[in-house]
Automatic annotation (TrEMBL):
It comes from the Bacteria. Residues 87-98 have a biased composition (Polar residues). Residues 76-129 are annotated as: Disordered. Coiled coil: none annotated. It comes from Candidatus Tagabacteria bacterium CG09_land_8_20_14_0_10_41_14. Residues 34-85 form the Insertion element IS150 protein InsJ-like helix-turn-helix domain. It holds the Pfam family HTH_28. This is Insertion element IS150 protein InsJ-like helix-turn-helix domain-containing protein. Residues 116-129 have a biased composition (Basic and acidic residues).
């Protein structure tokens, strides 16, 4: 039969119980691994003050991460993004700027007029020559 049974190759190997779950373990950052060590130590000694003193962290920090920690979801030990989810879409146009700052409109208006006058003067010079 040459290692074939019913046309399908047989795989003879041992599968460890729970090996399927190991494939889905997240890759933790060094900071998250450090936090995981905090909780391992805490579960051994059952004393928050000793744990915080041992790792050199404040109890406020420990309780913050304890509230977020979910043993079935290790990604909960990762830092959340501090970037704002929604940002304003800025609509800056010349008309909006003139409405908000009429003083700036007065300053730019003579410049625009002088350019127009220059163009017209040059055109009249060309015609007269």
């Amino acid at each position: 039969m040459n290692g074939r049974y019913n046309g399908v190759t047989m795989n003879i190997s041992f599968t460890m119980p729970g090996a399927g779950k190991l494939a889905y373990l997240p890759q933790l950052s060094p900071e998250a691994k450090k936090r995981l060590k905090w909780f391992d130590y805490y579960h051994r000694c059952r004393n928050v003050s000793l744990t915080c003193r041992y790792f050199g962290i404040s109890r406020k920090t420990f309780y913050y991460w304890q509230k977020r920690y979910n043993p079935r979801r290790l990604k909960s030990l990762e830092e959340k993004s501090r970037r704002p989810k929604n940002t304003r879409n800025w609509d800056v146009s010349r008309s909006n700027l003139f409405l908000e700052n009429p003083a700036s409109h007065r300053k730019t208006q003579p410049i625009l007029q002088s350019r127009k006058n220059r163009e017209t003067k040059e055109k009249t010079k060309e015609k007269s020559v």
